[in-house]
Amino acid sequence: MRNHLAVLALFLAAAPALQAADAGADAMQRRGREILHQSGCHDCHTPGFAMNGGQAPESVWLTGDQLGWNGPWGTTYASNLRLRLNAMSRDEWRAYARIMKARPPMPYWALNSMSDTDLDAIWQVVKSLGKAGTPAPAALAPGVEPAGPAVRFPAPPPNSAKAG
To answer: Any bridge partners for residue 76, and if so which?
Structure first.
């Protein structure tokens, strides 16, 4: 009986710490979901998200897309983040996010500048979603016509990127 009381006392003493840890994990999940929505990640990486007014079942969140983004750089496809991030540790994800460069329209510079806390929140949400889907098609070189649907970007006007 004494051992049972000791175990019960330890459990009761640890309960507040366990609840605090759960509250912290819940807050991190909420922050990660907020970032994914507000940063526009779903717009490209979740099939049909933008065309359905920002609505998609969680089962397809961040699974990449077959829709191509075509322009002078060739054709880019939004990658399956659930496969990519679930294959990385948190530290690997942070390192990748800091140096990753991508073809348009991916705003990689926004990802490169995110705080560790925000990157961790994204990683935690994607990890909790688990692996799903298939890899996105490989990017196509300039001049190679995409076989499926693609959003077409015109070439920018001459000297448009130069500061005046």
So the answer is: 69
E strand or H helix that includes residue 123 = helix 116-129
Calculate the CA 34 to chain-centre distance.
Answer: 11
The pLDDT value given to residue 48? 94
pLDDT exceeds cutoff 80 at 12: no
Question: Containing H/E element for 111?
Answer: helix 108-112
Contact 88, 121 (CB under 8 A): no
84-122 tens-digit pLDDT: 999 999 999 999 999 999 999 999 999 999 999 999 999
3-class secondary structure, 151: strand
In angstroms, rounded to a whole number, what is the distance separating the alpha carbons of residues 98 and 161? 24
Work out the number of other CB atoms within 10 angstroms of the CB of residue 50.
Answer: 16
Identify whether 43 is part of a domain.
no
Q: How many domains does the chain have?
A: 1
What average pLDDT does the structure give for the chain? 89
Other Cβ atoms less than 10 A from the Cβ of 137: the count is 19
Range of the domain at 106: 27-38+60-155
Q: What is the pLDDT of residues 17-42, one digit of tens each?
A: 545 556 577 999 999 999 999 999 99
